[in-house]
Every structure is written in C-alpha cells, then in structure tokens.
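Narrative summary of target 7.
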Amino acid sequence: MPVTGDIENMIGMLTESLADAAKHDRGTDAASRRLRKALSDLAKECKSVRSKIQNERN
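Modeled conformation, tokenized:
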C-alpha cells in the first residue's frame, strides 16, 4: 500500500474516534478506555509507516 493510503487509513482511525472523544469529554469512562486503545493502535500504525518510509529511503 502506498504511504498515501496509510495516511488515509490513519485519518479514518482518528475520524472513527471522534464519537468516543466527545463521550470522554462528557465523562464517560468506557469511552475513555476505547479512545486510549484507538490512540495506541494509531501510534503503532504511525511507527509502522515511519519504518516503511525509512526502509524505502535506504
């Protein structure tokens, strides 16, 4: 998958998390846990894309 597709996937992940972010702002604990999980998954995806880009550069 091209890097553009990876970035679009990450944007989709963030967009899906907006509802839980709003619920977190209202104080919903379960939404907070889901949001933390989504952000953790996003961080893993970022790391994967970064290493992919670095490997292509080398």
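Residues 29-57 form the longest helix (29 residues).
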